[in-house]
């Protein structure tokens, strides 16, 4: 799938899903590195840390957006390693996305997606693609 131009953190990228009429303006808005989970259950493994990225998803298409944002996002470090989202019940900086997000055209949702990285890894970019990562195109944001 084609990668949109990488943009600075805070800018929106228009992304398209597999179905005609499926489109969203997605923005990586905040990053918490490192962060913790106050749920009393979730903790990163030894030598790891949690990094949370807040995304805003606005449905600008003509179809209902129905997806699992955690499946849509990746975090990449400066060495080129890719990290998938991890499941936590809550995160200190704010609300996480529900497992499933449904947005009618014009609606938006905001939430954090959490990743577990080694404490030595340096975050380079956040990545998002609709349809659980199988969308037509992919957006990337530089986090520095």
Total number of helices: 1
CATH topology name, in short, is Immunoglobulin-like
Element pattern in H and E: EEEEEHEEEEEE
Relative strand content: over 45%
Low-confidence stretches: none
Task: State the strand order across the main sheet.
Answer: 1-11-10-6-7
Provide mean pLDDT, rounded: 95
Tally of individual domains: 1
Terminal-residue CA separation: 25 Å
What's the total number of strands?
Answer: 11
Shape: globular
Question: What does the oligomeric state look like here?
Answer: single chain
Fraction of residues in H or I helices: under 10%
Structural class label:
mainly beta
Major sheet attributes: 5 strands, mixed
Radius of gyration equals 14 Å
Q: What is the CATH first-level class name?
A: Mainly Beta
Specify the CATH architecture.
Answer: Sandwich
What does this structure look like?
With about 140 residues, this protein is an all-beta fold. The protein has one domain: Immunoglobulin-like, CATH 2.60.40. Helices cover about 5% and strands about 45% of the residues. The chain is built from one helix and eleven strands; from the N terminus they run βββββαββββββ. It has one helix spanning about 70; strands spanning about 5-10, 10-15, 25-35, 50-60, 65, 75, 80-85, 100-105, 110-120, 125-130, 140. It has a five-stranded mixed β-sheet. β6 and β7 form a beta hairpin. The chain is globular. The relative contact order is 0.32. The mean pLDDT is about 95.
